[in-house]
Amino acid sequence: MDLKYISTRGDAGIKYSPSEAVIKGLADDGGLFVPEYIPKFDVKLSSLVGKGYKATAYEVLKLFFTDFSKEELMYCIDNAYDDKFDTDLIAPLCEHDGQYFLELFHGPTIAFKDMALSILPHLLKVSLSKNGIKEKIVIMTATSGDTGKAALAAFSDVSDTRIIVFYPKGGVSRIQELQMITQKGGNTKVIGVKGNFDDCQSGVKKMFNDDALKEDLLKHGYRFSSANSINIGRLFPQVAYYFYAYIKMIGEGAIKEGDALDFVVPTGNFGNILAAYYAKQMGLNIGKLICASNENKVLYDFFETGTYDRRRDFILTTSPSMDILISSNLERLIYHSLDGDHKECAKLMRDLTEKGVYTVSSSARSKMADFTGIFATEEQVADTIRRYYERSGYVLDPHTAVAAYAGLQYKDKSPAGSVIISTASPYKFVGSVLKAIDPSLVADDDFKMADRMSRISKVDVPAAINSIRNANILHDTVCTVEDMENTVRSELGLTQIELHGSV
Ligand SMILES: *Cc1c(COP(=O)(O)O)cnc(C)c1O
After folding, report:
1. Please, what is the angle between helix 146-155 and helix 174-181, to 10°?
2. What DSSP string describes 282-340?
3. Count of domains in the chain?
4. What is the pLDDT of residues 307-349, one digit of tens each?
5. Per-residue pLDDT reduced to its tens digit, 137-191
6. Atom of ligand 1 at shortest distance to CA of 147?
7. For this structure, is 113 an active site residue?
8. What string of DSSP letters covers 36-60?
9. Ligand 1 centroid vs 324 CA: distance in angstroms?
10. Which portions of the chain are predicted below pLDDT 70?
11. CA spacing 20 to 30 A to 458: which of 103, 172, 232, 277?
């Protein structure tokens, strides 16, 4: 059956095919695309034991991307989950100190965003050709570090696409910067901006909404697209690894088909854990969805009280990819919990923009009872990293440690056990991880610290780190906020615009 997508805010009832929703990204009324109904997964899970990641991914994705043929979907899956990953398990499940972890950091940039970004370019390309769109796609994104590199790696040398990434010069870690500015691929461009992340993001948003620029692009055979985490082409590929983890647990004999397995997810923009929610609605036997937050605990407060309140200080933590006060994907859970009342959903989102706060009804709250929020302080995160290292020699990254802390708090309440979703390699955050384990291991050079981490963890330094040690710098463009548009124009061969005022 054909599945159509609609906006969480109504959008005059317009329905889009899956491929159209991938291309659009966001609905015209600012809402997020949700499926008209949530499909049921009716393959026997035990029949997928030992069949590999791709087989499970196919069974899940075909339910959401119903206008893709089997060949098209397999083409996307085969090109996404290949030897870019350092293990053909793609998402290995492992046990340490009596706790299961699903490692989602074996892709090209050693963080979980690779799970979805490696398939997005292929879903997008198939969607474009399906809809007869001839222009080349220009992916433009602002990054505070991780997403930019994952998007660059995903789109590098994908034909008929260009990718331009803006990052705050001086505002990302040296390893993150090196990862980006050594990026290969004739279609990639990385630009440092003299400004902070917000400046980069507003600059990009402004260009996306600039009609004159869009017209110029069309004349030159280009159109903009974004690779951000609210695209259904990023959200639904994440559903697959929850099924995969459950199937692996059956295969290991850790659970029986039908047991209620809990998942603990380190959460920022609410995309990862929302994928688990969809898996549960599709019929996977998930018990609790444990939403783990760092000190930016806006989601913990929301699940405790029903009030979402972003009016608070933004705290910089050792888990920066979870330093978020507006979790965009939560809008989809709100919509489903309101039984599709898009008017109420639109009102709550308007309240969030205008007042910074909203409260959901008690009936909507009762529909979210599968979620439990737990948060970890910076001290608890460091203690958890040290605890796992001391008890089992396993080294956690700080994001995973937030979830591992939550998992320990909840352990006695999980009858069938739980799986911690592990979202980054500790090599990405060597400084804070070594500091937690033993401050005397901290050095001023990240690569030196990587070697020390390898020695104490007995895990090889990943290729993603080794490959940037001596790599050539391929991108050295730095521009002012004002000059962002002309930098894009020059990259794409468009005429420059005159800047007003002084430079
Ligand atoms: C993005 C990210 C998260 C948060 O995931 P969401 O889907 O935004 O909730 C957690 N950990 C790491 C390492 C990330 O990069």
Report:
1. 20
2. TT--EEEEEEEE-S--HHHHHHHHSEEE--S-----S-GGG--S--TTHHHHHHHHTTT
3. 1
4. 999 999 989 899 988 988 889 999 999 999 999 999 999 999 9
5. 999 988 877 889 999 999 999 999 999 999 999 888 788 899 999 999 999 999 9
6. 15
7. yes
8. SSPPP--S-GGGGTTS-HHHHHHHH
9. 10
10. 501-503
11. 172
Residue nearest to atom 1 of ligand 1 (CA): 321
Give the pLDDT confidence score for residue 501 in this predicted structure. 57
Mutate to test the pocket of ligand 1, among 230, 329, 399 (most ligand atoms within 8 A of CB): 399
| pTM (2 d.p.) | 0.94
The rounded Å distance from CA 354 to ligand 1 centre is 26
Report whether residue 399 contacts ligand 1, using a CB cutoff of 6 Å: yes
- Contact present, 301 and 311 (Cβ < 8 Å): no
Determine, yes or no, domain membership for 182. Answer: no
> How far lies 158's CA from each of 133, 147, 405, 423, in Å?
16, 17, 39, 25
Please check whether residue 219 lies inside any domain of the structure: no
Give the strand order in the sheet containing 371-375: 93-96, 99-103, 418-422, 261-266, 286-293, 371-375
- Ligand 1 centre distance from Cα of residue 499 (Å): 37
Does the Cβ of 112 fall within 6 Å of ligand 1? Answer: yes
Instruction: Tell me which residue of 233, 143, 158 sits closest to 192, measured CA to CA.
Output: 143
Residue 503 has what pLDDT? 46
Pairing mode, strands 5-7 and 33-35: antiparallel
User: How many Å lie between the centroid of ligand 1 and the Cα of residue 310?
Assistant: 18
Of 113, 248, 280, 297, which residue is the catalytic one?
113
Query: Residue 271 belongs to what domain range?
Result: 93-110+233-459
Give the integer Cα–Cα distance in Å for 99 and 166: 39
Amino acid at 283: G
d(CA 454, CA 484): 40
CB-based contacts of 308: which residues, under 8 Å, 6+ apart?
A: 298, 301, 302, 330, 352, 357, 358, 359, 360
424 lines ligand 1 (CB under 6 A): yes
Q: Are 215 and 223 in contact (CB under 8 A)?
A: no
The reply to whether ligand 1 has any atom less than 6 angstroms from the CB of 271 is: yes
Sign of CA pseudo-dihedral 16, 22, 28, 33? positive
* Domain-located, residue 209: no
- Which amino acid residue places its CA nearest to atom 2 of ligand 1? 321
Cα of 267 vs centre of ligand 1, distance in Å, is 6
Closest ligand 1 atom to the C-alpha of 400? 11
| Identity at 309, one-letter amino acid code | D
The answer to whether position 348 is within a domain reads yes
The CATH number of whichever domain residue 433 belongs to comes to 3.40.50.1100
How many CA atoms lie within 13 Å of 418's alpha carbon, on the beta-carbon side? 25
